[in-house]
């Protein structure tokens, strides 16, 4: 009885299965070293511009503050550490495509040909959506939320925000919106993995919408405006992922 010919992808998968755990760990370490190296290079390149970067980040707040108010530092090291931390975040933000690419190179050998064709567009889309989420937070959500908080403050209270507190607030906001904009990718992955169907998601739409507002209530600042500005994009992004999932199901 003749045996069926073994394809290149099957041979690669067999070779991968036979690789010892130490080989995988060595490969992972190589990718991690490259990621850390790129982060360090970007960090030192951006270091001379750290104060300018913080000025750019604080622009939405300074635009909302009264003319007599300024930002303050309640810690002796705050004026140094806040731009320093922001510089590290900026390096991570810029290096994100390279980090995703290194992750892709690590998992690529374990994927079949069909999975490889889908994985790269999903990874590329996740990078774009993360940047869109951070941009949405900086240009739309942050100015609106700051305007709300400052406008409701008592007239006898002069708003003077600590530089470290403002940095932590912005980093949390950017991270939340960056991850939130990954909802279409997560939805597609669940559909492609067969863990859930588009029909099931459509039937649970009302519960998912309520869940979006419930999650937004806990991860955003304690005001209704920021909650709504996160929950509505979450819902729309879910609908986008559901729509793309239906298109993929029709083609398959």
From TrEMBL:
UniProt GO BP: intracellular protein transmembrane transport; protein transport by the Tat complex
Q: Where are the transmembrane segments?
A: 31-49, 88-107, 119-146, 166-195, 207-224
| Oligomeric and partner information | The Tat system comprises two distinct complexes: a TatABC complex, containing multiple copies of TatA, TatB and TatC subunits, and a separate TatA complex, containing only TatA subunits. Substrates initially bind to the TatABC complex, which probably triggers association of the separate TatA complex to form the active translocon.
Q: Where in the cell is it found?
A: Cell membrane; Membrane
User: Domain of life of the organism in this record?
Assistant: Bacteria
| Protein name in UniProt | Sec-independent protein translocase protein TatC
Recite the UniProt keywords alphabetically: Cell membrane, Membrane, Protein transport, Translocation, Transmembrane, Transmembrane helix, Transport
Protein's gene: tatC
Q: Write down the membrane topology.
A: Multi-pass membrane protein
Annotated Pfam families: TatC
GO molecular function term, any single one: proton motive force dependent protein transmembrane transporter activity
Question: To which protein family does this belong?
Answer: Belongs to the TatC family.
What InterPro entries does the database record attribute to this sequence? Answer: TatC (IPR002033)
Q: Kindly list the organism's lineage.
A: Bacteria, Pseudomonadati, Pseudomonadota, Gammaproteobacteria, Moraxellales
Q: Which GO terms describe its cellular component?
A: TAT protein transport complex
Q: Is Transport among the key words of this record?
A: yes
Q: What does this protein do?
A: Part of the twin-arginine translocation (Tat) system that transports large folded proteins containing a characteristic twin-arginine motif in their signal peptide across membranes. Together with TatB, TatC is part of a receptor directly interacting with Tat signal peptides.
